[in-house]
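Subject: Protein entry, chain in single-letter code together with its fold tokens

Area: Proteins and the way their chains fold up in space.

Attached in line: The record itself begins immediately under this heading.
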Amino acid sequence: MGGVYTWSSRWFAPKGEFANNLLEDNKIRKFLMQQLKPAGISKVEIERFFDKRTITIHVSRPGVAIGRGGTGVEQLKGLLVKNLKIKDAAKLEIKFEEIKTPDLDAYLVAVSISDQLARRMPFRRVMHQTLERIKRSGAKGARIALAGRLGGTEIARRETVKDGAIPLQTIRAQIDFAKLDSKAPKSGIIGIKVWIYKGE
């Protein structure tokens, strides 16, 4: 993990509880990623402290997630309790954190590429335009890789574009990475990988 990033789940489980907690964290993440897609969700951090749970959701459009007068938070709590059978909603806290520059978040960039490919836009143009946007946002380097039946061809291949430095060997380098599968019409599944170097 290096000295830059921390774990997305932070808790200590007593004997016999680890597997349950891990599976529950995965279910919560999967559910929130689908539910809050319009709000531009990037990642979900879960902290457990005794019987209290804090879920921090990183979104690019917090207004969409929170809703008018904060109704979205209560609604989300209700859905989590109902769908995932989470006990004791009173000890569940949901916080939203805004992503100031979505073009420097690798997951949001990958989602944007996926949406454009689903609309049948030319993949090379999508890659080059996205790279330009990342560089304009202040990144020191970026790399985008697409793999699959690009442009609807019969044989799958890989295409990569990069600009600037991506020092993957440097532990203190702050590199955001995301991997996503895009379901494109006619082309089937296209794998998307994004690396964004923000400096040391």
